């Protein structure tokens, strides 16, 4: 079985770090190394990391004196990695039992697969972590081409790969390069598009990780859906201006991505308007018209019904609108 290196970026997560690293060390794989990179935390993160390193030779620690930002940690981890495979697991997340074995197993069997991912359970920080079993198997994997993954990204305008589950081939990671610091919240999404240019991808429905949900999440700093849309637009532009530029039908793919973003923003604007949130609705509609100009004339019904929760969303939006009208006339 191939070796794997796991980087754990940490900032002010001393109360979660022990559990995170323990979930890695408990994986039943050989050739495992863990690097905790602390970004000048003011809490007990560094003492916890050093205690873990003293107890297990597989753990190393980098303790920064100044906060260089998350991208510096991600990219330092890429430079440090030398195992066959590589994973970045933020200190507030956890690995499921057997996750690394399952990912390594499929990539050992399939040298053409450079990126694997599975399901991540989202758990509120205030809630107990569910007990997950490991059946000892290697899981059921579906192999798709990189172009199939890229096409799915462009069709939805969203990233469906949970970060805590994304195990990659280290040699290919070094080829595609570092995370781009100008992409604050969609840096991993843009990186997966670069991986899509290099070969095949394996996906599984098995739970591979647990994502803690709390206010300090980096994604929690995004104020509204319009900001998310702008972040995704920036990721697509970055990719198609660089690695994606020479792909067959690159222009068509970018247009599809922008149309998907615009159509999604249109319905989000409609939903916000029904709730009386006029300012956010206006921002979203401007974004929709810029990326999908046809929405100025025709509502994108097709986009709405490609989403599995279309009926529920329509009912909720109309219910919000009805409630506002009743309160207005009361």
Distance between the termini: 69 Å
Report the sheet with the most strands, covering strand number, pairing sense and barrel closure.
Answer: 9 strands, mixed
Q: How much helix, percentage-wise, in residues?
A: 40-55%
Structural class of the helix and strand makeup? alpha/beta
Order of helices and strands: EHEHEHEEHEEHEHHEHHHHH
Strand portion: 15-25%
Q: So what's the CATH class of the largest domain?
A: Alpha Beta
Number of helices: 12
Low-confidence stretches: none
Shape: globular
Provide the domain count: 2
Count the beta strands: 9
The average pLDDT value, as a whole number, equals: 90
In the CATH hierarchy, the third-tier topology of the largest domain is known as Spore Coat Polysaccharide Biosynthesis Protein SpsA, Chain A
| Backbone CA Rg | 21 Å
* Superfamily (CATH H level) name of the largest domain: Spore Coat Polysaccharide Biosynthesis Protein SpsA, Chain A
CATH architecture grouping of the largest domain: Alpha-Beta Complex
In short:
By secondary structure, the chain is an alpha/beta fold. The chain is built from 12 helices and 9 strands. Strands 1, 2, 3, 4, 5, 6, 7, 8 and 9 form a 9-stranded mixed β-sheet that branches.
Walkthrough of the structure:
This protein is α/β, with parallel strands linked by helices and 330 residues long. It has two domains: 4-221, Alpha-Beta Complex (Spore Coat Polysaccharide Biosynthesis Protein SpsA, Chain A), CATH 3.90.550.10; 225-329, no CATH class. The protein is 47% helix and 18% strand. It contains twelve helices and nine strands. The protein has helices spanning 14-25, 45-55, 70-80, 99-109, 146-156, 170-176, 187-196, 225-241, 250-274, 278-291, 301-305, 310-329, and strands spanning 4-10, 32-38, 59-63, 85-88, 93-95, 113-124, 142-144, 167-169, 200-213. Strands 1, 2, 3, 4, 5, 6, 7, 8 and 9 form a nine-stranded mixed sheet that branches. Strand 2 (32-38), helix 2 (45-55) and strand 3 form a beta-alpha-beta unit. Helix 7 runs parallel beside helix 8 (225-241). The longest helix has 25 residues, at 250-274. It is globular. The mean pLDDT is 90.
């Amino acid at each position: 079985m191939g070796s794997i290196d796991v980087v754990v970026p940490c900032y002010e997560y001393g109360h979660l770090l022990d559990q995170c690293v323990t979930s890695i060390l408990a994986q039943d794989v050989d050739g495992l190394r863990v690097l905790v990179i602390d970004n000048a935390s003011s809490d007990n993160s560094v003492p916890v990391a050093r205690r873990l390193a003293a107890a297990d030779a597989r753990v190393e620690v980098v303790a920064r004196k100044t906060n260089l930002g998350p991208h510096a940690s991600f990219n330092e981890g890429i430079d440090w990695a030398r195992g066959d495979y590589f994973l970045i697991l933020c200190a507030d997340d956890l690995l499921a039992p057997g996750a690394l074995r399952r990912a390594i197993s499929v990539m050992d069997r399939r040298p053409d697969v450079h990126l694997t991912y599975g399901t991540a359970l989202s758990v509120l920080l205030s809630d107990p972590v569910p007990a997950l079993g490991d059946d000892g198997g290697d899981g059921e994997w579906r192999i798709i081409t990189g172009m199939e993954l890229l096409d799915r990204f462009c069709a939805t305008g969203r990233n469906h790969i949970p970060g805590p589950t994304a195990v990659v081939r280290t040699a290919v990671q070094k080829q595609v390069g570092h995370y781009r610091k100008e992409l604050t919240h969609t840096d991993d999404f843009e990186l997966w598009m670069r991986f899509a240019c290099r070969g095949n991808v394996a996906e599984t429905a098995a739970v591979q990780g647990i994502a803690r949900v709390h206010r300090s999440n980096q994604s929690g700093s995004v104020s509204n859906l319009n900001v998310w849309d702008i972040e995704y637009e920036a990721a697509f532009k970055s990719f198609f201006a660089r690695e994606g530029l020479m792909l067959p039908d690159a222009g068509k793919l970018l247009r599809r991505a922008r149309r998907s973003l615009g159509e999604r923003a249109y319905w989000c604007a409609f939903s916000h308007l029904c709730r009386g949130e006029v300012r956010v609705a206006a921002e979203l509609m401007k974004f929709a018209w810029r990326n999908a100009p046809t929405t100025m004339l025709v509502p994108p019904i097709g986009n709405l019904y490609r989403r599995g929760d279309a009926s529920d969303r329509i009912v909720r939006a109309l219910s919000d609108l009805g409630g506002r009208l009743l309160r207005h006339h009361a």
